[in-house]
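Hey, sorry to bother you again with one of my protein questions. I've been puzzling over a protein and I'd love to understand its fold better. Take your time with it, there's no hurry, and the full record follows here:
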Amino acid sequence: MAVYASDPAISRGRRHAEEPAPTRNPFQRDRDRIVHSTAFRRLVYKTQVFLNHEGDLFRTRLTHTLEVAQLGRSIGRALGLHEDLIEAIALAHDLGHTPFGHAGQDALHERMRGHGGFEHNLQSLRVVDVLEERYPAFDGLNLSFETREGILKHCPLRVARWIDQHEPGGIGRRFIERSQPSLEAQLANLADEIAYNAHDVDDGVRSGLITLDQACSLPLLARHRDAALREHPSLAQGKQRRLLFETLRRMLSAQVYDVIDATAAALRRHAPRSADEVRQLPPLVQFSPAMRAASTDLKRWLYRSLYRHPQVMASTEPAKRIVAELFDAYVARPSEMPADYAGAPLLHRSVSDYIAGMTDRFAIREHERLTGARLFERVPG
């Protein structure tokens, strides 16, 4: 590893002291705990863009998470960073997502106004710190400081101060001091962006809501499509799926190499001598300016052309209604929830935790059970 990588031998430790594992470093141990968690398994039935019942081949939160981990490890290896920490952060980064993606989050946040609100990134931390129940001595997974820091990608100042009151000098402090997280945390965050931009184009074309030609109105995609056609002219003869895959593969490779080169240049320029020095510097894991602009253009285009597509929006309102009506039903009748949630002291937060942990298909079935209304087709399981 490079001198600026996070070193598990000098980890800042866990909130509850534990004996070291005989064969695994702390970051490997974190990764394994995340993979075995209940919240991780539920990601397989949580929405990315398309609802879980809309097709078997679209990304879910789980497949997205695995893609982020793969990209992060590949880039981290080239930069001399700690791959196990990158993987642990990547595998945990979406554990707090609601059913129905951002539609579910928006509905839950609206219902939680006046009760602290709801934000999936903070909920991911809450999952690993509080909600997982696997160990007799503590709640949560008791992950290392470095993994928890990476999970908390962003945080309002008021929340950071609250965290710091309960955990002085802990993971909330950097938002107060305006310092940076580890390079591994910075990389997991950027790998997330690279992954969802590419796979949302793939899923959008697969769904028929957008076309590759439309996506190639963007120079970033057009350049790689044209290069693929020059090298493999047969792709123009009715092999659109292969052309799409080859275009996206080349785009992903270009972005990965761009991050490696731009970050290596930033590291040479600032020359941090330790992971702690990294925290006092500007963000170092980055795209080049040209690739940053191209990635931003792609995100904006996806928002206009896919995320706001009438067919996607048609599922948004029913999804929001399901979450909102579930929330109201549980607040009115807490006994409809499992006893651990029904008996919790903060009812609204408990209801929020319960709903956020649901898969898409469980939320649909539970809403139908409680209201008698069927807003989506019946789902199996």
